[in-house]
Amino acid sequence: xxxxxxxxxxxxxxxxxxxxxxxxxxxxxxxxxxxxxxxxxxxxxxxxxxxxxxxxxxxxxxxxxxxxxxxxxxxxxxxxxxxxxxxxxxxxxxxxxxxxxxxxxxxxxxxxxxxxxxxxxxxxxxxxxxxxxxxxxxxxxxxxxxxxxxxxxxxxxxxxxxxxxxxxxxxxxxxxxxxxxxxxxxxxxxxxxxxxxxxxxxxxxxxxxxxxxxxxxxxxxxxxxxxxxxxxxxxxxxxxxxxxxxxxxxxxxxxxxxxxxxxxxxxxxxxxxxx
Length: 275
Ligand SMILES: C[S@@+](CC[C@H](N)C(=O)[O-])C[C@H]1O[C@@H](n2cnc3c(N)ncnc32)[C@H](O)[C@@H]1O
Hints:
Shape: globular
Order of helices and strands: HHHEHEHEEHEHHEEHHEE
Helix content: 25-40%
CATH superfamily: Vaccinia Virus protein VP39
Bound molecules: S-adenosylmethionine
Distance between the termini: 33 Å
Number of strands: 9
Oligomer: single chain
Structural class: alpha/beta
CATH architecture: 3-Layer(aba) Sandwich
Strand content: 15-25%
Strand order of the largest sheet: 3-2-1-4-5-9-6
Radius of gyration: 18 Å
Number of domains: 1
């Protein structure tokens, strides 16, 4: 994917750190999404915004050798990791492809299922983008995972407070908590009723939504990995290595000073059907 896509640049830069939080965050959420989708052997799945495969790889296991997963993302470096992980699992029914989820051609054969974990709120014009993705699954099922209201709130507020100390104008990052008061796409879908209504407004029926509770102990290591391995890393762009190290120290000290011992990573898992 072209390096002029700012999100691709940010997520490619997370590459070495992204999987540091997979065991606590991306992994459990991806598996919960796949469980909720009740995938059947032989089904064809499109996993959009796949990253290193947190939902795509469990999906490939679930659909088995007669099924197939096409996993797409704009960040080739994350896709390279995903391919290595899939190969280590012995999977031969999954392809990872660099593609923009907002510009997919009509598939030769429609997919049975669309999965998207922590991706929809990054898509420009979220509603139209997801409508386009629904065109890939006529008569099929959709499942999305997004942050639940309150997830990462104190954590990111503390981060951006410390960013502001170093940089009077912190750069907002799309889709994730930016420290700014401006409404963000995630705010439209961050509760059970909101995401249920949103999917329904897009024509999805039989929507079932649950909250996956994901409290993660706030160790210094986890806290900084969550910054480096997520879209929050975009706020580090202008800082030198020394400034980053200072920010890391100030940030973990501030978390501890506020008595934050756990990071709320609660996630909404919503699934439904396209008539
Ligand atoms: C927070 S990560 C989630 C990755 C993975 N689904 C997971 O749960 O671990 C968001 C992903 O969305 C991808 N992304 C953002 N915009 C995209 C777009 N327009 N098309 C495809 N992927 C996109 C990013 O590159 C990144 O890998």
